[in-house]
Write a structure and sequence with these properties.
The structure is a homotrimer. Chain A is an alpha/beta fold. The first copy, chain A, has a single domain (2-269), classed as 3-Layer(aba) Sandwich (UDP-N-acetylmuramoyl-L-alanine:D-glutamate ligase), CATH 3.40.1190. Chain A is 49% helix and 15% strand. Chain A is built from 11 helices and 9 strands. Chain A has helices at 2-15, 28-38, 51-55, 70-86, 101-113, 122-128, 148-158, 195-211, 215-236, 240-253, 256-262; strands spanning 18-22, 41-43, 60-64, 90-93, 117-121, 161-165, 169-172, 176-180, 265-269. The two termini of chain A are 28 Å apart. The A-B interface holds A 24-30, 66-70, 96, 100-103, 136-139, 188-192, 238-242, 244-245 and B 18, 25, 28-29, 32-33, 36-37, 41-47, 49-50, 53-54, 69, 71, 244-250, 252-253.
Chain lengths: 279, 279, 279
């Protein structure tokens, strides 16, 4: 995984994949800055009659449901459909799904289109898999391990890579599970700390189209590069404000050799035991 | 007041009150980061058919009228009504009211629902009380003391705590006036410097539901903790950019003992003299 | 040019021109902070039934088409018409025009109203002049010099100052060309690095109404002050995150004497040679 991450990070920096984001109003600026820092080219194209057309030509796409206005809901469906047709890889981040009705309905419609990856906290993944009524909104009230079976079920049912955020990130394609222990608790004290990672996943998925890595590798590589940069940022940070600034600097500076030496990753096969979650 | 502030700050950090914000597009990210820094849990739920439901379960709610799109206007009314029904404390920040017609009409409708607190600069408070045609928009062209009678009138008419921002903040429930001389002029050089304080007030009002402090104490405590953190941030800042970053670090770091030693607060009874403003 | 820049910067700081921005959701906060740092007073008034009224009283106006929702499209047309009537100077930033249909149609409608200045990268200026099918969106795939003839044509046809961003900025009113070699590549690694400059142009155009400088001088002065501050910021920056913070500090700190000594500006008459672009 560390080698694949180093290769994909280099590919992102060299290829500057155009990364379309339909994301929430809280984190648009931070998300674009994270993409620029990592080497990708952000494009926040999120209106009807443009979002779909652009999804057909962009390298990768993020759809984040944090503040889904009616315009963004229509643009999201338009973009997802176009991405499907054009085989553009796309990431769904179903923020606060299960807890709130409008986005929950939208998330179910979008999952049915077939995202390449689904990223959320444990509560969101459980809710999307039909196994929970959801958390308090943006907070995870469950742990990634508690959502492991739900993640596997979602991944198998929809053919998507599923990434569950937490102290140890859990990423699965339904057959393999990757656990990443890198990161820093300050990521949870910055708004968009998780949302921006969804955009990085879209950029890495875009880069993987030219490198030949799998979607599982691309999603895990994005998580690993991002959480390692977060560790570097935390060293210099005096609090959440300076951490967010340092994270952008660290994303721009992190070197492949740092990834090879710093990765704390575990890869294993999914155990096939009976599950009770429904996709 | 300093003791109440220390108690409420601790309660916010321990309880992480869920704080819903329907706020303007300029300051959403900064506002969420301020809430996270102070220890609260931000939730920017601002669309129709979700805003009201969420207002019924959140600890506190902010409605800020900075960029009131049609969707946000409907969501604001929905949330205010739900907050009223559920007894959720909520803060109204009537940005640029009086100067612009759409938000002025909306502000009057929202005031009629009964906010727990109203936060604004002197021009906005005067305009809302019917005593002025308003300022230049986001700028205060009047001083807090010039709005003291208007604030008292608004507070008595609507049963709300009214907070007027300025070099010395003035906060009143109609009977008592609290003046806070803490803060730094750099707060006026950062967009959202005032708007984010409205969100902190909502978080402190949420925390006060469990501590038993009054709404007046909660609003004043939020102002005091925030302006003291601003003083700490200003020490390290080289300009408005580094000040905004340092403010987030300072909000996360400020200790109760700092509040007890640094507070410059004056509490007095409202003098009952004839006023000419109309609620 | 350096002298005019120093005079206009002083005028902005003393007069604090009210600067209305109808801009994209990615950069609203950063744009407002840039305006505050440089000494102007931002006002993000971008909804229907307020945008036009405000455009009649503001000192300067920016219309940026980065994320043009239906509400913003209507507000933009309302504001442009009101600015035209009131002789309020206004800047059009046609982000990604040519590449995407909704904003391309809107940009053509807005250009017809007669902006005081048009700011874009080379691809956008070529597209607006009808000479190109556009770039990848927010990226410039052409150089400013490649857009020199298109800029001249646009400027002459519409009576606007046209500013083309790049390693060397090119600014023309159709008769004179100003080239500014100041700046730093880190500006392209911060979202809103270009968009915020459009707002600064609007502020300087507003200040020029009282100083008597021409629109060409105001637009070039904004570019020069901004790119010089970027050079100062780059000295202290450890990456794109700390650069964005340092840029705000530098904009607040940059002194007229620094502009006089640091400017790398070339002013020349437009050569009249046949052109093939169409306005």
């Amino acid at each position: 995984m560390a080698t694949a991450t180093a290769e994909l990070l280099t590919a992102v920096r060299e290829g500057q994949p155009l990364t379309q984001c339909i994301t929430n109003s809280v984190v648009t600026g931070f998300t674009a800055n994270v993409l620029l820092a990592v080497g990708a080219a952000p494009a926040m194209v999120d209106i009807v009659d443009e979002a779909g057309m652009f999804a057909g030509v962009t390298a990768g796409l993020l759809i984040n449901l944090g503040t889904p206005t009616p315009e963004q809901r229509r643009a999201s469906l338009e973009a997802a459909a176009a991405a499907h047709t054009a085989a553009t890889p796309w990431v769904l981040d179903p923020v606060a799904v299960g807890a709130l009705p409008v986005r929950t309905a939208l998330a179910r419609d979008l999952v049915a289109v077939g995202p390449s990856a689904i990223r959320g906290n444990a509560s969101e993944i459980l809710a999307l898999a039909g196994a929970s009524a959801g958390g308090r909104g943006v907070d995870a009230t469950d742990t990634p391990e508690a959502a492991a079976d739900a993640a596997r079920s979602l991944a198998r049912t929809h053919g998507a890579v599923v990434a569950v955020s937490g102290p140890v990130d859990l990423i699965t394609d339904g057959d393999t599970v990757i656990r990443i222990a890198n990161g820093d608790a300050l990521l949870t004290r910055v708004t968009g700390g998780g949302c921006a990672l969804g955009a990085v996943m879209a950029a890495f998925l875009g880069a993987a189209r030219t490198t030949g890595h799998t979607a599982l590798e691309a999603v895990a590589a994005a998580s690993l590069a991002y959480t390692l940069a977060a560790e570097d940022a935390a060293v210099a940070a005096g609090g959440p404000g300076s951490f967010a600034v340092a994270l952008l600097d660290a994303l721009a500076a992190v070197e492949p050799v740092r990834i090879l030496s710093g990765a704390r990753v575990e890869v294993s096969a999914v155990e096939d035991r009976p599950v009770e979650v429904h996709g």
